[in-house]
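chain below, 459 aa
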Amino acid sequence: MKNKLFWRLCTFIGLGTVLLFWAIDWLTNHTETSMSFIDQHYQQQLFDYGKKAEDILINEGEEALAKYIETLQATEQTWVAVVRSDITPFAGTTMLPAFIERFQYGRSPEWKIHLYFEENPVMEVPFVDKSTHFLIQLPQRMRPGGMLMTVRLLLQIALPLILLSALSYLLYRHVMGPLKQLEKATNDFSKGMLDVRVTPALSGRNDELTRLANTFDQMAERTSSLIVNQRSLLADLSHELRTPLTRIDMALDFVEQGISPEQALERLRYEAATMRELAEDTLTFAWLDTELPSLRSDNFDLTELLNVICDDARFEYPHHTLSCQLPDTAPITNSSQLALGQAIENIIRNALRYTPAEGEVSVLLKRTLDHYSVVVSDEGKGVPDDMLTDIFKPFFRVDKARSSSNAPSTHSEKRAGFGLGLALAQRQITAVGGTIHASNTTDSHGNKQGLKMQILLPV
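prediction:
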């Protein structure tokens, strides 16, 4: 599902809001209900007032009761009365028994009090005869809900503030946790810790922030790879330049001393050409490795390109057999004839270089439904299996595994001697949308017979 973080936050906020309003409503009603009853002490006091009035009426008469009521009204500063509930119908009518049973003048002290009425209610304490009632308007000191406004302010302001603060904190932790991890990783990466990654710390999540972390990790992986490769490339280039520079110094010494000036000048030209090719190939490799360009602007015939490359290779290696199995035509679109031609030429010449004299190198081109397959096989000694991927690294040599005693001595072949040929070829093939894979070929006894390069190119 897209926008998981958005929907998660919406659900979290929505449920949190509903729960907040429910909690406020429930607490408000519960608190108001609990505050709507007269305190037990005051309830008992009201019942005692009624009981005392009943005792005075029975034992001392109405005059004593009148004095007690007058004193009680003055003490409580409220209205007090004693009434009878005789209901006398007239005009030939009668009263329902149920109406007579539930008829009352006031409410019991145990009943709930409406806190929002301005006037205090009249409380009733019935006498034993059930027809006489002690009535008293609830004294203000006994009225419940004195802290109602304070409690309402707490419930409607303080409680939402606390709950919303807690909700905001949880949301902040949920969103800022990954962002802080990303900030820390960015700072560490800027300090040179190229192996720092964010995704492992967010293994329990799967939302937009996780995708952001994945994007950062991909960027960090690509950037760290470029930095490491550039450092390695510069170190290897500086190492490779030392030999021709030393030879140039020696040739200059010979010229200054007048010793074989013609050979010294030839050596200078040779070393200058070698350094120029090395610099050009290194810059081309660095451009392909850093920019990852897409070279797909040409349409051409792959069979024709391979024929031209193979003809040139046969001329340079007359003592080898170069066999080609190619279709009559192999049109290819959205590619680069220059980049692909240089890559295949490097691979074929590399195969011829490591194949013994009178040996054979084969080139096979086949087309499947959606790609071309170019297979170049040689009869050299192969490559150790653990080095089959390393041969595509710049300045990597496998001289111990594949000797090149048959290599021509012309400086036009010098580039391969630096270990840049296959590295360049792989980057160029990748730039046209293809892939290259190296494997060893074996005979029936399992002995290595040579190296096979397979190139897959989109049609």
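The mean pLDDT is 83. The CA atoms of residues 219 and 225 lie 10 Å apart.
thats it, cya
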